[in-house]
Design a protein that fits this description.
It contains 14 helices and 12 strands. By secondary structure, it is of the alpha/beta class. The strands form 2 sheets. Strands 1-7-6-5-4-2-3 form a 7-stranded mixed beta sheet, with helices on both faces. A 5-stranded mixed beta sheet has the order 8-9-12-11-10, covered by helices on one side. It is globular and about 75 Å long. The structure holds pyridoxal-5'-phosphate.
């Protein structure tokens, strides 16, 4: 098998038999000739040539048998969860979930008769103690948002397997460049491809990768929920994935440098980045990740998160993550606003916490912008 960067560029690419172009052609049709063959091609059936090209590339990058592409990360996540959970079933989720996922559980599970438990931590032992007789799914997310906690993927996968529980991981923050959970024993990997996979802050997509037999079941539910992706966006996603290794490696380097810069800054209280030796999950992260990613968070001193963000000139306060440009957010005022002060305290999210999604700019320019905004005089 070719090495990772080669697979980014080449795997899944369609052959252009008509004109011998080097890129996959874009098939925009929603109607394909059909007389008496067994299968029909139709975009909602997740089987168009462009869907298959991207799915094959993602399966290859995730070291998985098979993959499917969806219209958003939440379309991928909801389809996976509703494939394996029904009335009377139970699922265990780790603490520190992506906000959209926790909103989904909160709003949808009860009325479908599905029970769930949010574990008190990311530790394998704490996750295990939440498992019951009717538990079907164990769901983790590492590094987590916005505190960058690390879950031991292999320990969780081994424990769940011994108990006959399917494991799902949201691998969005790490991206397949830094972490390939299927090779550590996880059954199903989900992504918001809107983030690092798309990588240019201009498309919405999701993906699922894993074992063939599980993907076949997810596929059947996917047909019913209808969250398939259009050919144009599939093409953009294929194009983006060809450069994901170059983008994410540069982002890893920039984030590591900024983490060290922030740690030694007198106006910064706390830096959360798994690449720092002082991070409580550093050893596990070093074992299961090949790079520490582009997400980090820190607490500013002597000013609140809003005042700090207003002073930034290059780094833009923005939603989402994983693009080429460095952006920041104040979780207490955005993603975790709905928790209220008490809820945020329980989660360890202060008013002064700033989350960065580091981009590919020159790191000296990023440092200069953070420096001027940190100074309170
Ligand atoms: C953005 C995000 C999602 C949801 O993806 P959408 O593409 O917005 O539907 C899920 N998980 C994580 C970690 C995310 O950052």
């Amino acid at each position: 098998m070719n090495r990772f960067p080669t697979r980014c560029v080449h795997s899944g690419t369609m052959k252009d038999h008509v004109k011998k172009g080097i890129n996959s052609p874009i098939y925009t049709s929603t109607s394909f000739e059909f007389i008496d063959q067994e299968d029909t091609i139709y975009p909602r059936y997740l089987n168009t040539p462009n869907e298959k090209a991207v799915a094959e590339k993602i399966a290859s990058l995730e070291d998985a048998e098979s993959a499917l592409v969806f219209s958003s990360g939440m379309a991928a996540i909801s389809t996976v969860l509703f494939t394996f959970l029904g009335k009377g079933d139970h699922a265990v989720f780790q603490k520190g979930l992506y906000g959209g996922t926790s909103h989904f559980l909160d709003r949808e599970f009860e009325r479908f008769g599905i029970e769930y438990t949010i574990a008190p931590s990311q530790q394998a032992g704490d996750l295990e103690s939440c498992i019951r007789e009717n538990t079907k799914i164990l769901y983790i997310e590492t590094p987590s948002n916005p505190l960058l906690s690390i879950t031991d993927i292999q320990a969780v996968a081994t424990m769940a397997q011994s108990l006959g529980v399917l494991t799902v991981i949201d691998n969005t923050f790490a991206s397949p460049v830094n972490q390939q959970p299927a090779s550590l024993g996880i059954d199903i990997v989900v992504h918001s491809a809107t983030k690092y996979m798309g990588g240019h802050s201009d498309l919405l997509a999701g993906a699922v990768a894993g074992k063939d037999e599980l993907l076949k079941e997810i596929y059947q539910t996917g047909l019913n929920f209808g969250g398939s992706l259009n050919a144009m966006t599939l093409y953009l996603l294929e194009r983006s994935l060809k450069t994901i290794h170059v983008r994410v490696e540069r982002i890893n380097d920039n984030a590591m440098e900024l983490a060290h810069f922030l740690v030694s800054h007198p106006k910064v209280l706390q830096v959360n980045y798994p690449g720092l030796p002082a991070h409580p999950g550093h050893e596990i992260a070093a074992r299961q990740m090949t790079g520490f990613g582009g997400m980090l968070s820190f607490e500013v001193k002597d000013q609140d998160g809003i005042a700090f963000q207003k002073k930034l000139k290059l780094v833009k306060p923005s939603m989402s993550l994983g693009g080429l440009e460095t952006i920041c957010s104040s979780p207490a005022h955005t993603s975790h606003r709905h928790l209220g002060p008490e809820g945020r305290k329980a989660e360890g999210i202060s008013e002064e916490l700033i989350r960065l999604s580091v981009g590919i700019e020159d790191v000296e320019d990023l440092k200069a912008d953070l420096e001027q905004a940190l100074s309170t005089t």
